[in-house]
């Protein structure tokens, strides 16, 4: 008679602490998914704000443009007067070729057939610091260069850059806050797991399990649940971020519809988003290890 | 009639009479002027010292011996056993188990020592969410044994305690006697050098108690040092053996 093949042991034998039940695959992953969603949005927001700030940085470099009038001072005199202002870091005359290049998109190729067209004299100012009140600064410039037309749009662009930078920093702060809350949530889940399995932990400890063994069982389970939750949250965030990237594409020099020219999805911080699940899992693993080892120290 | 538990070749660390490191073990357990207090609940943030539950305990147990641990409820039997299986440390005095003085033992060294000690609890303490097989396999898995060896050893051990047919049953579905036999199988599956049992027959009828005790005697016959705490005087008369007798935390008799 053939010997009966030994029955395969059920996998729960590898889970003597019953962690699959006490650290169930519902609540903790759902909470982590919600936080991963917020973290992904924060990462996307920080990336977007940083890209916008970088894009606008060039515009902000020229904070003020001054158009000289025919009846006003000559360009050299105007430059000297402007350089004497304390706010001005640099003042330079815009050369005619660059001015023509700027106007060509509006006047078209026929511009070259207008030899009599007189281009105004323009001076670009780079400021040492952004003026608190651009209107009053414009009045001072106008007083220094009589008859000049002052455009302070660059000041506003610089303010937008500062705003973008602030938003970028705020998004990073939100990211840290989300990470801290996630750590706290994981720590609470681990403590609940310890409380529910206190007797079983004592049995394992009594039969010679090391702190590393017991903590490792919790940490592996927590890391798995956290990674799954973070992956789900990141996947949910992806289409939302793609929508924002598409909206922001024109501001970043790309096109929302012309994917071949400058695909808008390239503006997303894909590497950071891809790192979100493993980083979250690492936070979960470390939190569980620390919580367990701290608690186990009270056993002899 | 209880058969012999499965035999297999033992290494030096598992030697029932040998000490750690291969030397000859003169004393399996040695207590010298041992005192024990439990901390009382914290008052104003500081846990205070409780009354001494064990006082001036001094004795030596030889390797391979069988001892009853006797005394009324509250005499300190469970505390004495807890010191023997390293669940607690003494407040004062010196405890030496398997040749290892606890006062100088680093905490990291204790798990390896615990793997050489089998414990049978009065309330069994089987893991409720895994079947009998996995409960008995627990010490082997903690020790990192290969799954094939675990399967063979646990099957033999379950056969020895008469629970082969209950391998896949959860502890809650077993009778008290069956749970206690499963707990004994778990305690001895690693072939411990020392086996301590805390009131192993306390919740059983006489027939079940005799069967459980026969298993413990069989382990002793094979060379394991066995200490059994009980207040069942009938069983003690049935199986005469040296005893440690406690009275209000003091050792009042040894022999």
Q: Spell out the helices and strands of chain B N to C.
A: EEEHEEHEHHHEHEHEE
Strand content of chain A: 5-15%
Distance between the termini of chain A: 52 Å
The count of DSSP E runs of length 2 or more, i.e. the number of strands of chain B, is 10
Structural class of chain B: alpha/beta
Strand order of the largest sheet of chain B: 6-7-8-3-9-10
Shape, principal axes of CA atoms of chain B? globular
Query: What do the pLDDT scores of chain B average to?
Result: 87
Helix content of chain A: 55-70%
Structural class of chain A: alpha+beta
Order of helices and strands of chain A: HHEHEHEHEHHHH
| Count of strand segments of chain A | 4
Give the uncertain stretches of chain B in residue-range form: 9-22
Task: Please give the alpha-carbon distance between the first and last residues of chain B.
Answer: 28 Å
- Low-pLDDT residue intervals, each spanning 5 or more residues of chain A: 1-10
The amount of helix of chain B comes to 25-40%
Q: What is the helix tally of chain A? A: 9
Strand content of chain B: 25-35%
What is the chains' assembly state? Answer: heterodimer
What report would you give on this structure?
The complex is a heterodimer of chains A (300) and B (255). Chain A has 300 residues and is α+β, with helices and mostly antiparallel strands. Chain A is built from nine helices and four strands. Chain A has a four-stranded antiparallel β-sheet. Chain A is elongated, with a radius of gyration of 32 Å. By secondary structure, chain B is an alpha/beta fold. Chain B has a six-stranded mixed β-sheet with strand order 6-7-8-3-9-10, sandwiched between helices. The longest helix of chain B has 16 residues, at 206-221. Chain B is globular and about 50 Å long. The chains are: A alpha+beta (300), B alpha/beta (255). Chains A and B meet through helix 7 of A and helix 2, helix 3 and helix 4 of B.
